[in-house]
Specification:
It is a single chain. By secondary structure, the chain is of the alpha/beta class. The protein has two domains: 207 residues, nicotinate phosphoribosyltransferase, CATH 3.20.140; 169 residues, TIM Barrel (Alpha-Beta Barrel). It has 15 helices and 18 strands. The chain has a seven-stranded antiparallel sheet with strand order 13-12-1-5-3-17-18. It starts with 6 loop residues before the first helix and ends in a 6-residue tail after the last helix.
């Protein structure tokens, strides 16, 4: 009924490009199926001049490749990465070692798992960097194919969002779904105050009372109506003002905040949603917004252009034009996130920027087809992202 690939089809190589199938046919016919290679996954650049990205999708890649006669090393999921090290050398995000003919068909799905999820987690992290510790909810599943909802909300959460509005997305991250009411509720009930009161009467008490205040009247007027109707039970008002009515959205928010405070509703928070992104959210923070529901800009975030290339064949360095051949190690300074790419370890064990100790960044993920890494939970990955976000400086992203 739905145009989606099943887990069995993905694991069976049915989502690959046909030229990999034909490549395998040729290799098998010529007795080259088991030629050993080392391949690496790198990013040639990041979209929209992003200075950094957040790696996401590693857990799914591990399950995709599990059981194949290969070894895989990977930068841990949730790592904030740059495409190149401090010398300008491209950084391997993942390496795969084994007979090429046994894993070539998995290149396309592997890249798909990394490219889209990493784009979403990166956009979420960029917005988190702007909003600080304010509430941030993923609203974007309605903009993408519903089969992707779990991946979208997981990637958004790992990137730093606080929760998700979709049922399956929230289940994926082990949280309760976040959200209250659409305009449709107000329209069907027929009156804003009656709709807010009905919500308050029916919905369990543990759900925060957030009144949507832009259905029929001016946002300021409806915010006052909601505050006076629900009093102390009102947690927040949400403004989802359509673009045709927005004008200066920040000034509308300032007015709403002022009118609530002057009437003694100081504790009522303001949540904004609709058309928000890393490019337009800062003025709303200055205007007094306490939380954001962000959808399209996160779920439809540009994908990160990862590619996989063979860099070693039968133990010897090889590479196509534009790529660097040979086995590489990646070292990182955890204090300032500077990376060093070397063929056999860094010439110095100290960071060229701050002098701190550097550590290996690529870690074993699969050995002889068996997952050997401890795959962290979503909360641990999110903590890693937030910790590394706090290190980033304007001069380094």
């Amino acid at each position: 009924m739905f145009h989606i690939a099943s887990e069995t089809e993905i694991r069976g190589g049915q989502t690959t490009d046909v030229y990999f199938v034909r490549t395998k046919q040729v290799l098998e016919a010529k007795g080259l199926l088991d030629v050993p290679v080392l391949a690496e996954v790198t990013a040639g650049g990041l979209p929209q001049d992003w200075p950094w990205g957040v790696l996401c999708g590693v857990e799914e890649v591990a399950h995709l490749l599990e059981g194949l006669p290969i070894d895989v090393d990977s930068i841990p999921e949730g790592t904030i990465f740059h495409t190149n090290d401090h010398q300008g050398f491209r950084i391997p995000m993942m390496t795969i070692e084994g007979p090429y003919g046994r894993f070539c068909e998995y290149e396309a799905p592997l890249l798909g798992l990394l490219c889209q999820a990493s784009g979403i987690s990166t956009m979420a992290a960029r917005i988190r960097k702007v909003v600080g510790d304010r509430l941030l909810i993923s609203f974007g599943v309605r903009r993408m194919h519903p089969a992707l909802a779990p991946m979208i909300d997981r990637a958004a959460y790992l990137g730093g969002m606080d929760g998700a509005s979709s049922l399956i997305g929230a289940k994926t991250i082990g949280k309760s779904p976040m959200g209250t009411m659409p305009h449709a509720l107000v329209i069907i009930v027929g009156d804003q105050v009656e709709a807010w009161k009905a919500f308050d009467e029916v919905v369990p008490a543990e759900v925060a009372r957030v009144a949507l205040v832009d259905t029929y009247f001016d946002e300021k007027a409806e915010a006052i109506m909601a505050a006076e109707a629900l009093r102390d039970r009102l947690f927040a008002v949400r403004l989802d003002t359509p673009g045709s009515r927005r004008g200066n959205f920040a000034e509308i928010i300032r007015e709403v905040g002022w009118e609530l405070r002057v009437r003694g509703f100081d504790k009522v928070k303001i949540i904004a949603s609709g058309g928000l992104s890393d490019q337009n959210i800062a003025p709303l923070i200055e205007a007094g917004v306490d939380g954001f529901g962000v959808g399209t800009s996160v779920s439809n975030a540009p994908t990160i252009d990862f590619a996989m290339d063979i860099v070693e064949k039968e133990g010897r360095p090889v590479a196509k034009r534009g790529k660097l051949g040979g086995r590489k190690e990646v070292w990182r300074c955890p204090k300032c996130l500077v990376d060093i790419v070397e063929k056999s370890g860094p010439s110095t064990r100290t960071c060229p920027k701050c002098g701190g100790e550097v550590r290996l960044l690529l870690e074993p993920l699969i050995r002889k087809g068996r997952i050997v890494a401890k795959l962290p939970g979503v909360d641990d990955i999110r903590k890693k992202v937030l910790s590394e976000l706090s290190i980033l400086t304007p001069s380094f992203g």
